[in-house]
Amino acid sequence: MMNWIKKKLINLLVKYILNYWKGGDKMLSKIKAFLSGKKTYLISISAIIGILVAYSNGTLEIVEAIKAIIEAILAMTIRAGVSGSK
Question: What's the domain range around 31?
Answer without folding.
Answer: 1-35
